[in-house]
C-alpha cells in the first residue's frame, strides 16, 4: 500500500502544479483519488458557506466523484462532515452503522473519513470519502487525505490574496 500511496501523492502534486484555481485542483484531486483507490467509492469536497446572519454557516457540496448524494448542504452540527468541519479534526468512522452522526447517502457505505481543509488558520471546508468496505481508512489513507486537504488549503490561501 505505501508504494501506491506514494504514487498517488506524486500524481496529486502534479495535479496541484498544473492547475490554476482551487476549483480545478479539487476537481482533479477527487478524480485521482476516486480512480486511484478502488476502496474510495465516493470522494468529494464540501466547502463552508457563510450566509447572511442569522443563517448559520453551511457545508455545500463542491467537486465530487461517485454516486449522486441527497446531502448537498450539511449544517455544521450534522453528520461526520459537520463533525470534522466544526471540530477542525479528522474524523474516521470504521462502521457507519454504529455512529449516530452518520448521514446515510448509500446503503453500501460501510466506513467514512472526513478531513477539514484549512485556509488562513480557519476551516474552509472538508474532504469526505466513503467506502463500501468496513474500516477502509488506515493510517496511510489518513495521511494521504490530510495531504490532499493541505494542498487545497494552500491553494485557497494563495487565491485569497
Main features:
alpha+beta; 161 residues; 39% helix
Tell me about this structure.
This protein is of the alpha+beta class. 39% of the residues lie in helices and 25% in strands. The chain has four helices and six strands, in the order H-H-E-E-E-H-E-E-E-H. Strands 3-2-1-6-5-4 form a six-stranded antiparallel sheet, sandwiched between helices. Strand 5 (111-119) and strand 6 form a beta hairpin. Helix 1 runs antiparallel to helix 2 and helix 1 runs parallel beside helix 4 (139-159). The longest helix is centred in the C-terminal third of the chain and has 21 residues, at 139-159. The radius of gyration is 15 Å and the shape is globular. The relative contact order is 0.18. The model has no long low-confidence stretch (mean pLDDT 93).
Taking the alpha carbons of the first and last residues, their distance comes to: 37 Å
Q: In percent, how much strand structure appears in the residues?
A: 25-35%
Q: Uncertain runs with pLDDT below 50, 5 residues or more?
A: none
The strand line-up of the biggest sheet is 3-2-1-6-5-4
Characterize the biggest β-sheet: 6 strands, antiparallel
Task: Output the radius of gyration.
Answer: 15 Å
General form: globular
Return the string of H and E elements. Answer: HHEEEHEEEH
Q: From the helix content, strand content and strand pairing, which structural class follows?
A: alpha+beta
**Level of helix content?**
25-40%
How many β strands by DSSP? 6
Q: How many helices in DSSP terms?
A: 4
Output mean pLDDT.
Answer: 93
